[in-house]
Amino acid sequence: MELLHEIAATLAAVKAKNPLIHHLTNYVTANDSANITLAFGASPVMAGDPGEATDMVAKAAALVLNIGTLSAAAVDTMIATGIRAGELGVPVILDPVGAGATPARTAAAGRIIRATRPAVVRGNAAEIKTVAGLSAAIRGVDSAADETDGEAVAAGLANRLGCVVALTGQTDIVAGGGRLCRIANGHPWLARVTGTGCMATSLIGCCLGTGADPYVSAVTGLAVMGVAGDLAHRSLRPEDGIGAFRVRLFDAVFNLTPELLLRYAKIG
Fold first, then answer.
1. Helix (H) or strand (E) run with residue 150 in it
2. Contacts with 63 (C-beta within 8 Å, 6 or more apart), sequence order
3. CB 21, CB 42: distance < 8 Å
4. 168 neighbors 195 (Cβ within 8 angstroms)
5. 20, 29, 45, 124 - which has most CB atoms within 10 Å?
6. How far apart are CA 27 and CA 163, in angstroms?
7. Using CA atoms, how far apart are residues 230 and 267, in angstroms rounded to an integer?
8. Predicted TM-score of the model (pTM)
């Protein structure tokens, strides 16, 4: 099936199947991740206590791991839950937020990847380059890295880890299993709203929860976020700002249909 039709079918599957997506994520954007999951048509659960996280993943269709607000205890819980997910056949997506910003974050991302073998790793250029063992400029958790070699970095890391790598930025890149594509949707204002990267990771998790192929899941999740960003900005009035854009973004994801995705997705 042509990739565009595969992503449209995956969007429809999320809304039809309403998969339960277990998140072990950060406290800054947890509410946004939960609401974007609901807007897309899936159901979020965020059971981060070590006493229940591994039990909850047994009920989930996919597991999202996000190290945005790092702690040693949280990393241990993510590893235990990710290992349990692997035993159960529940796909895992890792968002290595801020990898490269501090040695602790870089080490945590590496530990989680080695222990849980995620189906998808999604990050900005600096995070993906750091995970790949390259030097990269990063400011807080925001990338300041050059994106010109993004395709080679993403493809190389995907081959080395045996997973799909989604590198997000001005143009998103998805690589894995010998396939690679670029997604040219998304408005610059997405970078001015907290948590749009985390939300993109949740959208990919929703697609994984349908049983879709990890590559198709990553392309679908990023295309949904990009097209929704385009439509949200297009709907603004002249006096509207970032606050209205954020609300319209959730509306755009909620109202997105396979037909709209086919019409507006720019995938090459």
1. helix 150-161
2. 21, 22, 23, 24, 57, 81, 82, 85, 90, 91, 92, 93, 205
3. yes
4. no
5. 124
6. 27
7. 14
8. 0.96
Using an 8 Å Cβ cutoff, are 67 and 109 in contact? Answer: yes
Q: Where are the alpha helices (DSSP H) in the chain?
A: 3-17, 30-40, 53-56, 72-88, 103-116, 125-131, 150-161, 196-208, 214-234, 242-255, 258-264
Residue type, position 121, single letter: V
What's the confidence (pLDDT) of residue 147?
73
Residues with Cβ within 8 Å of residue 176, at least 6 apart in sequence = 120, 158, 163, 164, 165, 214, 215, 218
- Nearest-angstrom CA–CA distance, 255 and 226: 14
Total Cβ atoms within 10 A of residue 107: 13
Q: What single DSSP character describes residue 190?
A: G
**pLDDT given for residue 137 in this prediction:** 72
Residue 145: what pLDDT?
A: 66
Q: Residue 195 in contact with residue 28, Cβ under 8 Å? A: yes
Point out the residues of the chain with pLDDT beneath 70: 1, 141, 143-145
Chain CA centroid to CA 162, Å: 17
Q: Tell me the pLDDT tens digit for each residue of 106-125.
A: 999 999 999 999 999 999 99
Phi, psi (deg, nearest 5) at residue 14: -60, -50
- Choose among 132, 176, 130: nearest CA to 155: 176
SS3 at position 42? coil
The residue length of the chain stands at 268
DSSP of 159-173: HHHTSEEEEESSSEE
* pLDDT at 141 (0 to 100): 66
Q: Is residue 70 within a helix (H) or strand (E), and if so which, with residue range?
A: none
